[in-house]
Amino acid sequence: MSGHQQPDGAASTDAGGGADVGAAGPPGRWLREHARLVDAVVVAVVFTYNLFVIGPFTSPDGRPVFLAQLAISVLLCGLYPLRRRSPFTVFGAMLLAACAQVLVAGGSTLLFADLVLVFTVHHMATRFRWTVSVPAAVLVAAWLPLAAAPMLRAGHMTIDAVVALVLVIAWAWTWGTLVRVRRAHIAGLQDRARQLEREREVQARIVAARERARIARELHDIVAHSLGVMVVVADGASTKASTEPERAREAMVRVRDTGRTAMAEMRRMLHILRDDEPGELSPQPGTARLERLVEDSRAAGLPVALTVEGDPVPLAPGPDLAVYRVVQEALTNVRGHAGPALSRAEVVLRYRDSEVEVRVTDDGRGDAGADASPGGHGLVGMRERVAACGGTVRAGGRPGGGFEVVAVVPTGSGR
């Protein structure tokens, strides 16, 4: 049996079972994880069969060439497992050994071990771009007719067989190139998946930060307003405790009720922080509770009135809460900074076609523009909350004295 009849079947051994194919699924993973074992099996099979091929052949001048061909076979098979570590060096050494085979053996036969050149072309195509793998395939394809020429002249091989072997080399290169392209495609998809995962993590952190900021604003509004009311009422109660004990007792009841309301709202916010899934939460305050807010402020000693202009329309949850918090924060600031000259504060809620304007004014002489909380988050949080709804906030002194806060908020989808 001559060596030229075997490359196709032997090449299938490596292409179908070698560790270079990059196949998907459990078989492909097993081959990649046991690449050295696969290489050893390929070398053992090729070298063992090669011994039966090279035995009977002699050179054209009658000289036995068994030892020379055996040495070249050992060199080719020994280099094959090293191709992963130094592909260019190993390929060059293999090509030189194949050329030496032609010179030493006189082209008496194509070694079965020459198949490792085909396998190496496949390996080069799986690892490198065509600018590298194509020259490698061309060199092997050009060497093949040169090595087969003496066999053609002796009638041991036909032109069709040589063409078939060249096609095998082309097939090995094509398969390797397809494997490389597929690997690159999978790697690109994996990179994209990792990038999307990183983007999702960043987006989740942004959402979490926004939620923390929202909850911080809610807690500030709840605590600042409630504590402000409680301090004012408690001061009044302490003043009237000896002269008007009944009114002082009523004031302390109001302090208690205000504290309970604040605690209930804080528990609701903490419930949001603790639970991943939203539960049955109490409704968020909105424009419907403005009248009660003004009444509570008036009961705490703040001379404030509420005026509604235009036809009230339902607001979306975000704008509805924003309007309430603007009024709540503005009244807290009035109570803390308007000063003793304050005689009147007013809340005006004006409905327009697609927006609502809320205006809180006072005639005090204090620094009502300052934040009621030491941290200074009141007006800043007010602006952030309204801006999140697409609205604007303006705060500053009035020409005739006093201070005003004006917020314009779109009605949103609730219209």
Automatic annotation (TrEMBL):
Segments passing through the bilayer: 37-58, 64-82, 94-122, 128-146, 158-176
Domain Histidine kinase/HSP90-like ATPase: 322-411
Region (Disordered): 1-20
Record bears the keyword Nucleus: no
Gene Ontology CC annotation, any one: membrane
Top enzyme category: transferase
UniProt key word Transcription regulation: no
Catalytic activity reported: ATP + protein L-histidine = ADP + protein N-phospho-L-histidine
Residue ranges of every copy of the Signal transduction histidine kinase subgroup 3 dimerisation and phosphoacceptor domain listed in the record: 211-276
UniProt keyword list: ATP-binding, Kinase, Membrane, Nucleotide-binding, Phosphoprotein, Transferase, Transmembrane, Transmembrane helix, Two-component regulatory system
Domain DUF7134, first and last residues per copy: 29-183
Source organism: Nocardiopsis aegyptia
The name this protein goes by in its record: histidine kinase
GO molecular function: ATP binding; phosphorelay sensor kinase activity; protein dimerization activity
The EC number(s) this enzyme carries: 2.7.13.3
Database matches in Pfam families: DUF7134, HATPase_c, HisKA_3
